[in-house]
């Protein structure tokens, strides 16, 4: 099979003035170096504007958010509890309890601590005690927990302790994300550099590609930092990590595509700037379309309820936009300054006219010949394999995981929660908070106490040594609370219910659901919040987001593809193949998560984020392939054009897929369950899409259908 490029060379055309060829690239390089110089220092600052408090990610309409905002009127300060649990294999002696009291009393002097410090509460088995230290919400947990540990260690307690509760989990999350500025970025760049060395076998090109990616990231971080600082977006560690990976991966992919076309044009043009202009023109549409597809998919996240999902939309879109801009301005300028030498030692040579066969030697020519001979067998067989893999979806557990399972590896807060579960009602220290009418206090508290998931009930009170008045349990009749009266603010009271189950467990969330039904039937204005309610509302919002965002992304991407390919059938087929690849990826991921890694489940957002990246990025590779196929098919016919496109784009798209998979796999170095799962889903999905869908399924399907794939266009032939 033969194809001929009869394009006449433009070496005889009027040349651009040399000062323009030098001035414009030089100006662009100076501008980008200035941006990098300003934005570089913000790599270490961006964590300052990131928050990992889950309650800040909920929409204002969520019931737990309303309670979180209103609970301040019952307290002098808005606080977050740190629960210190002391445990022993034997019963605690009076001397040990006295030592605990004397060691914990000074904790109220720690900066950020809100007095009073609760006295030690001893478990029924007498082997454990817990103390609640409330931290002001404005305090820094990264300094607060170490300050507690420093004072307790100095007291030389004769008993072990753990810092648990919301503050403890915040500290563990912060520690897990601490490597996001250095380790994650370093691993991602190292992996990309090694792959680029293998791909180009050039001492110069890998550095230029990395400069392009890093400068785009510097610009993105600078812009995102000030948006987060101004309160326009909410940033967390997950979004921050994804931004790093997304910009590096996307900018590298666009650079690979541009450089491949530039190398090709250098064989057709005598002057490097002529080749650069030609490659820029022919790379512009696929790069803009590919990046625009990802941006459109990310911006669909603005339809989300969860603030964390909404944040990823504009943050990711900013990163992709700057990756596109850098790849179309900085990279061409750097390439032009180096000329052909940038490819040393394998510099492409200029030939006036290219006549070429599709060779029979080499991987991609062999793949093309295989596709041309067995097209129907390939696309049917590939579809069957992907459908079999998708069966694993039946094992997918994406209904959320407890907060204690967010951190992989060691977790002091998780260990502390296990001690609480063993010796106390698991919800001790982090009660459900119920704001109800003061007139309905008796009826509401009675209904709450009757629920099997509730251990005890109290109400915020005046003149109480602990700040609350017990309504159920042994302490309810204690003389110490004789003078206490419920605290009434705006005709409402704050009832606190200690749950039997861990606050982040499925059972605790089920209890919140029952309590909302029971309390709502008594007092229609009552609202229930607290840690368990936040977990429940987060899960509900995440499931809503999944149901709303995914269809929106499909519609937007389909429209973009129809405009780009000037076809209706081709975009639909591409979308179906990408969805099939996504389903197969999730199916295999479910099996791996459950039976190999032993994960407790997955957050609903893993499915949503995986869909956004795999569908948008998977379509990218199909865009690279099909735009070239459309270009070639207008000259040589659909079937031959498809094979030509497969051969000329095969290595660059595969390289781009490997780079993107490797950069997302780097997320696994951060010991967070969500990021580890997302890393596997996206890395495996990109490889599956690149190697199977784009290399075999799509070319075989197009080859089998022929010119009808471009329907309703009639410009193409078989």
Characteristics:
elongated; 20 helices; Alpha-Beta Plaits; Multidrug efflux transporter AcrB transmembrane fold; 5-stranded antiparallel sheet; 3 domains; alpha+beta; 6-stranded antiparallel sheet; 718 residues
Annotate the secondary structure layout:
Blueprint: E1 2-5, H1 18-39, H2 63-70, E2 79-87, H3 94-104, E3 113-114, E4 121-122, E5 128-136, H4 141-154, E6 160-164, H5 165-176, H6 183-200, H7 205-229, H8 237-266, H9 272-299, H10 307-338, E7 354-357, H11 363-373, H12 375-390, H13 412-423, E8 432-437, H14 441-449, E9 454-462, E10 468-470, E11 485-486, E12 492-499, H15 506-522, E13 527-529, H16 531-565, H17 569-597, H18 604-636, H19 638-665, H20 673-705
Antiparallel strand pairs: 1-7, 2-5, 2-6, 3-5, 4-5, 8-12, 8-13, 9-10, 9-11, 9-12
Notes on the protein architecture:
By secondary structure, this protein is an alpha+beta fold. The chain folds into 3 domains: 2-8 and 24-53 and 178-402 and 537-710, Multidrug efflux transporter AcrB transmembrane fold (Up-down Bundle); 75-176, 2-Layer Sandwich (Alpha-Beta Plaits); 431-529, Alpha-Beta Plaits (2-Layer Sandwich). It is built from 20 helices and 13 strands. The strands form 3 sheets. Strands 8, 9, 10, 11, 12 and 13 form a 6-stranded antiparallel sheet that branches. Strands 2, 3, 4, 5 and 6 form a 5-stranded antiparallel sheet that branches. A two-stranded antiparallel ribbon has the order 1-7. α1 (18-39) crosses α7, α12 (375-390) packs across α17 (569-597) and α18 packs parallel to α20. It is elongated, with a radius of gyration of 30 Å. The chain starts with a strand and ends in a 13-residue tail after the last helix. Mean pLDDT is 84; it is low at 1-13.
């Amino acid at each position: 099979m033969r194809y001929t490029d009869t394009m006449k060379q433009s070496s005889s055309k009027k040349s651009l003035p040399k000062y323009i060829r030098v001035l414009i690239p030089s100006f662009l390089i100076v501008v980008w170096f200035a941006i990098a110089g300003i934005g570089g220092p913000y790599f270490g600052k961006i964590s300052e504007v990131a928050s990992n408090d889950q309650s800040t990610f909920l929409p204002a309409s969520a019931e737990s958010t309303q309670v979180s905002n209103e609970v301040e009127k019952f307290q002098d300060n808005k606080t977050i509890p740190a629960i210190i649990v002391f445990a022993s294999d034997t019963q605690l002696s009076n001397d040990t309890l006295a030592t605990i009291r004397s060691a914990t009393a000074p904790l109220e002097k720690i900066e950020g601590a809100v007095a009073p410090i609760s006295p030690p509460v001893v478990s029924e088995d007498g082997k454990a005690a817990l103390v609640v230290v409330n931290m002001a919400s404005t305090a820094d947990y990264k300094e607060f927990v170490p300050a507690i540990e420093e004072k307790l260690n100095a007291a030389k307690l004769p008993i072990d302790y753990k810092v648990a509760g919301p503050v403890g989990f915040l500290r563990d999350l912060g520690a897990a994300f601490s490597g996001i500025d250095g380790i994650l970025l370093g691993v991602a760049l190292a992996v990309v550099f090694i792959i680029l060395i293998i791909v180009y076998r050039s001492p110069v090109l890998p550095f230029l590609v990395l400069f392009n990616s890093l400068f785009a990231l510097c610009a993105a971080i600078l812009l995102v930092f000030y948006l987060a600082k101004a309160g326009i977006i909410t940033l967390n560690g997950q979004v921050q990590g994804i931004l790093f990976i997304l910009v590096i991966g996307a900018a590298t992919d666009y650079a690979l595509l541009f450089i491949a076309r530039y190398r090709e044009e250098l064989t057709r043009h005598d002057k490097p700037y002529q080749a650069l202009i030609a490659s820029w023109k022919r790379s512009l549409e696929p790069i803009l379309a590919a990046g625009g597809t990802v941006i459109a998919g990310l911006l669909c996240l603005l339809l989300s309820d969860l603030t964390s999902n909404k944040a990823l939309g504009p943050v990711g879109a900013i990163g992709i936009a700057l990756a596109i801009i850098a790849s179309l301005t900085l990279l061409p300028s750097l390439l032009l300054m180096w000329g052909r030498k940038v490819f040393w030692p394998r510099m492409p040579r200029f030939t006036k006219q290219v006549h070429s066969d599709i060779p029979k030697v080499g991987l991609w020519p062999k793949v093309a010949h295989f596709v041309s001979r067995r097209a129907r067998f390939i696309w049917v067989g590939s579809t069957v394999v992907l459908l079999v893999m998708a069966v694993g979806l039946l094992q997918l557990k994406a209904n959320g995981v407890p907060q204690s399972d967010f951190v992989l590896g060691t977790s002091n807060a998780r260990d502390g929660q296990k001690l609480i579960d063993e010796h106390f009602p698991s919800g001790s220290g982090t009660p459900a908070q119920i704001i109800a009418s003061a007139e309905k206090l008796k009826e509401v508290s009675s209904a709450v106490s009757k629920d099997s998931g509730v251990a005890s009930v109290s109400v915020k009170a005046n003149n109480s040594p602990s700040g609350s008045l017990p309504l159920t349990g042994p302490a309810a009749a204690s003389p110490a609370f004789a003078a206490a009266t419920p605290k009434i603010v705006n005709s409402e009271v704050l009832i606190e219910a200690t749950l039997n189950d861990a606050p982040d467990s499925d059972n605790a969330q089920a209890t919140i659901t029952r309590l909302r039904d029971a309390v709502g039937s008594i007092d229609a204005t009552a609202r229930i919040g607290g840690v368990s309610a936040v977990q429940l509302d987060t899960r509900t919002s995440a499931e809503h987001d999944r149901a709303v965002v995914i269809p929106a992304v499909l519609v937007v991407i389909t429209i973009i593809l129809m405009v780009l390919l000037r076809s209706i059938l081709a975009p639909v087929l591409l979308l179906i193949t990408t969805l099939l690849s996504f389903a197969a990826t999730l199916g295999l991921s479910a099996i791996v998560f459950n039976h190999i890694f032993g994960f407790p489940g997955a957050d609903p957002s893993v499915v949503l984020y995986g869909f956004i990246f795999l569908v948008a990025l998977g379509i990218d590779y199909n865009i690279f392939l099909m735009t070239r196929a459309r270009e070639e098919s207008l000259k040589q016919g659909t079937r031959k054009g498809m094979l030509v496109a497969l051969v000329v784009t095969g290595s660059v798209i595969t390289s781009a897929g490997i780079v993107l998979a490797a950069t997302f796999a780097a997320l696994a170095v951060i010991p967070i369950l969500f990021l580890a799962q997302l890393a596997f889903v996206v890395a495996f999905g990109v490889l599956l899409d690149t190697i199977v869908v784009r290399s075999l399924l799509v070319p075989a399907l197009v080859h089998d259908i022929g010119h009808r794939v471009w329907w309703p266009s009639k410009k193409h032939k078989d």
